[in-house]
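Good morning C.,

I know you're traveling, so I'll keep this short. The sequence:
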Amino acid sequence: MLLGMTFQRLSTCFILYVVITIVKAEETEEWNPFFELAGVKIGFSRVDVERLLGEPLVETERFMDYPDQGFSVILTKNDIVYGFACGSGCDPSRILADRFKFVTPKGIGIDSKMEEVTKAYGDPTRIKRDGAFTQIYYGDNASDTILVFILDELGVRNIHSADLRKLR
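The tokens, ready to paste straight into the viewer:
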């Protein structure tokens, strides 16, 4: 029950994060977003996700939470996957970060250092510091895709990836 309550609080935090901070980022030369996770692809339906991963522990209008794997699937209002929220940007216990074992196509995962992120993806489109966290943005105005890494002093804690075209 505690994990469910923690994950519900985390989902609320993710919702606020997505609504407040997803922005169009400037174009980058080389772009390889994180558009597949645990077999789930951007563009899948809610039904496709459940068929592949089973029922989520917590489900809201916009999120399907899989705390056993350390990530959430983010849905459009039409129940189409447009992004992922991975790790534990809001969970101080690190439960979700410790369970998230996937990496981006360029090898970045939980605990990767800032230097590893910038070596893999190049100069970020934007860097935002917010208290103990640093947010590193990569994106493409032409396709409205975004990849955000949230780091603390130990490394990557959270990865967000979204294809904002799916919101139209």
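Safe travels,
E.
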